[in-house]
Amino acid sequence: MPRNNCLNISRLAKYDFKYISLEEVIVLEYLLHYYQRNNLDIVILNRIELETGIKRNRLTSAVQDLKQKGFIDTKVEKSKTTFVIFIDIITNNLAKIFTNPTKLGYQYYLYVQNPSSFKKTKAKKVVTKVDPKTKQKTKAEAAQMSLF
User: Fold this and answer.
1) Which long-range contacts (CB under 8 A, 24 or more apart) does 98-105 make?
2) What whole-number distance in Å separates Cα of residue 49 and Cα of residue 101?
3) Residue 87: other Cβ atoms inside 10 A
4) CA atoms of 92 and 8, how far apart (whole Å)
5) pLDDT-based confidence at 13, cuts 50/70/90?
């Protein structure tokens, strides 16, 4: 059974299908999904075919079209085809890829390129304590409330 756990349907509607075909979009989104998780080395054509449901001849033509546009490249190493994604070229061509390029489209590709810059961090509270012997504040007791 084909399964595609990386395609965002709401983003799919924003692509310009005059410039990029549906199969190319699915393959590109699939490769970006694995690129983001640093697992691009495990992706092979059989796996893409199985997980997306795209037949082999359409898959190879989509990969060739993406190579022709400069978005990806393939290298054959020991009878295994490995993929290389050029995020900078994709980011530079977002105006062509999307019908109406929005801030969210750009943020998605920047997130794929550098996911650590979009992580939310919580601010740590500084807690101070008063040392009873020296009457100086230490960091653990300041947040405690005193009734006396």
Assistant:
1) 98/14, 98/15, 98/16, 99/14, 99/15, 99/16, 100/14, 102/14, 105/11, 105/14
2) 29
3) 15
4) 21
5) confident
User: What letter does residue 148 receive in the DSSP assignment?
Assistant: -
| pTM (2 d.p.) | 0.67
- Pairwise pLDDT comparison (102 vs 61), residue with the higher score: 61
SS3 content of the chain, % helix, strand, coil (to 5): 45, 15, 40
> Could you give the CA distance from residue 29 to residue 71 in angstroms, rounded to a whole number?
12
Structure tokens that stand for 85 in this block: 């994604």
Distance separating alpha carbons of residues 113 and 107, to the nearest angstrom? 10
pLDDT tens digits along 43-95: 888 888 888 889 999 999 999 999 999 999 988 888 788 888 888 888 888 88
CA 89 to chain centre: 15
Q: Which of 37, 57, 48, 52 is nearest to 82 (CA)?
A: 48
